[in-house]
Inverse folding.
């Protein structure tokens, strides 16, 4: 309700009756809760490999951590909310949707406009599947003279931006569907960061000189404003 407001004062300097009253705005909040979920996986390794080849243990640690990062990306985008799954952005009720009318590049503009006008937010990121981004619909699009539309192949800094949006290329998103949004309104709460633990207390691992290396994290995810996001179908 913000608007220009005349000053208020006493005596003959009052510009108009009631001057000085400021308009009151309001915000509507809804109390929502979401459960903290556990993401985890493990891998077996021999004690000999762990003790004699430190590089193997390092590789296992990196593999486990990257695996958690991959599943977290997928869950934040497409998790269905059942069981230990997070509820991803694409599964959140109320997000906006536009079709791919005209070119795929045009459709991204339609999504930016929907977020800006209907959602009253400012989109900052495009998430797109690699098969869609590295295609004639986007990165390989050319004009009639054969010049690339989006970027100079020799300038890598141009290859991760479109219409002012940061481009995130991820196979976690569904192919042929792009996501445009103001990602300030997608929040990840890390209850526990990635923990990597080692034990021989699994099945008969103790007698077989085996170790189980487990990586897990606990997190919750939520979308504060569904209309800060818009999907583009059929890209």
């Amino acid at each position: 309700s913000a608007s220009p407001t005349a000053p208020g004062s006493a005596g003959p300097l009052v510009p108009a009756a009631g001057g000085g009253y400021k308009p009151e705005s309001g915000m509507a909040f809804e109390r929502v809760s979401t459960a903290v979920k556990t993401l985890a996986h493990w891998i077996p390794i021999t004690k000999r490999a762990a003790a004699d080849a430190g590089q193997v243990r390092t590789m296992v640690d990196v593999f486990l951590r990257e695996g958690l990062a991959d599943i977290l990306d997928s869950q934040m985008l497409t998790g269905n909310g059942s069981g230990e799954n997070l509820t991803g952005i694409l599964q959140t009720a109320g997000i906006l949707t536009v079709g791919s009318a005209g070119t795929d590049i045009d459709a991204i503009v339609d999504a930016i406009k929907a977020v800006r006008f209907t959602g009253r937010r400012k989109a900052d990121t495009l998430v797109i599947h690699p098969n869609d981004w590295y295609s004639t619909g986007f990165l390989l699009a050319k004009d009639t003279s054969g010049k690339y539309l989006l970027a100079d192949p020799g300038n890598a800094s141009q290859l991760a931006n479109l219409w002012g949006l940061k481009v995130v290329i991820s196979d976690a998103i569904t192919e042929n569907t792009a996501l445009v949004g103001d990602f300030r309104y997608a929040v990840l709460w890390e209850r526990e960061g990635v923990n990597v633990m080692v034990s021989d207390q699994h099945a008969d691992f103790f007698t077989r000189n085996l170790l189980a290396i487990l990586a897990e994290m606990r997190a919750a995810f939520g979308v504060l404003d569904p209309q800060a996001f818009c999907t583009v179908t059929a890209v």
